[in-house]
Design a protein that fits this description.
The structure is a homodimer. Chain A is of the alpha+beta class. Helices cover about 25% and strands about 25% of the residues of chain A. Chain A has a six-stranded mixed sheet with strand order 1-4-5-7-8-10, with helices on both faces. In chain A, α2 (about 120-130) packs across α3 (about 150-160). The radius of gyration of chain A is 20 Å and the shape is globular. The interface of A and B includes residues 80, 85, 86 and 131 of A.
């Protein structure tokens, strides 16, 4: 069935980009909003209900040149993205330091380790050694399953990957066995703190 | 006495800018490096000696336009600084969530409250309510005294300031009575965790 706008133009579903630079022509519309956006809404909900104080860190940017067209306004005219040395999200919950990284993968059977870099693994390992809680939240976009996995598993797979050339990914079966499905709701969208409650307290 | 380089040129002390946009012609050389830089070195020291995991958050920047001159390189050509909704520094120490803001003032007798904005005060107040440790580190540049002050005092002065128009600053005497002098060393430069040990553990 073809749908029409009131002006008579036929309706065509617009492809929505999941993230800047996402392959064009791929439709993400049916799969819900990108993970980062959903987590930001979730954290805003936790903040407004006074449940936790957790933020996404700003993307690190190296500023090279700034113009001052007016007294009050600084306009950055040359800058570059830098690689983050830490994870993206941190904060405090029930008196504990919380630290995590969020990833999406289009692969149905595994999360490739190339989604992380060495600095992030060292960071999350330090966090856990100092008494913080560290985990990853991973969305498999093919079936929209979202898992929370304790960072110890990521560290173990990262260490293993150094010694072999074949498997450089975490199989989805590990998420199913050792991870925890995160409930998707209207609000909060991705209620990961219910999993954190069960797992760490 | 005039000093000379080996090549016979006379040595002249170069003025160093304390921060981008600092008034030119002002000499900061004698007063040591800017607080932010010294704290970054301190945090790097704590990290390398495995004492704590504390980072400065990247400055939030609103990116408006990005060019892709090459496949791999993204060049940001239009962007603007955004106001931070949180404090600048956070991390984990001895199992506790740590959160603080650092400020420098050229005023000899007080720290003006206009150094903070409302979002930051709400943030630090939430942090403390959820069991985190919150404080400010303030450097009085006139005599290079650096104090650590628990955030409860900042919150109290902020509340007071709403009800009066006269005093909108925290007097240095309060830092001397209720705050704690932070030792300045070669390395770590600003050893604030020794104060945190005494104050919060």
């Amino acid at each position: 069935m073809t749908l029409y706008y009131p002006n008579g133009q036929p309706y065509k579903e617009q492809p929505t980009q999941a993230f800047p630079g996402a392959p064009s022509g791929v439709h993400y519309g049916h799969r819900g909003m990108p993970l980062e956006e959903a987590l930001n809404l979730t954290n805003a909900y936790y903040l407004s209900t006074d449940r936790a104080v957790i933020y996404k860190k700003p993307t690190p940017i190296q500023v090279v040149h700034v113009d001052y067209p007016a007294r009050s306004a600084a306009k950055i005219t040359e800058a570059y993205y830098r690689k983050a040395s830490t994870t993206d999200y941190n904060g405090v919950y029930r008196g504990k330091y919380i630290d995590f990284e969020a990833k999406e993968t289009g692969q149905a059977a595994a999360l490739p380790l190339k989604n992380f870099h060495a600095h992030q693994i060292s960071h999350i390992s330090r966090i856990r050694r100092h008494g913080g809680i560290g985990f990853i939240i991973v969305r498999f976009t093919a079936d929209n399953d979202i898992f929370l996995l304790d960072a110890s598993f990521l560290e173990a797979f990262w260490q293993d990957a150094k010694h072999q050339t074949t498997r450089r990914s975490i199989p989805k079966s590990l998420f199913q066995e050792k991870g925890h499905l995160v409930p998707i709701r209207f609000s909060p969208r991705i209620d990961y703190l219910t999993v954190v409650d069960r797992l760490y307290f």
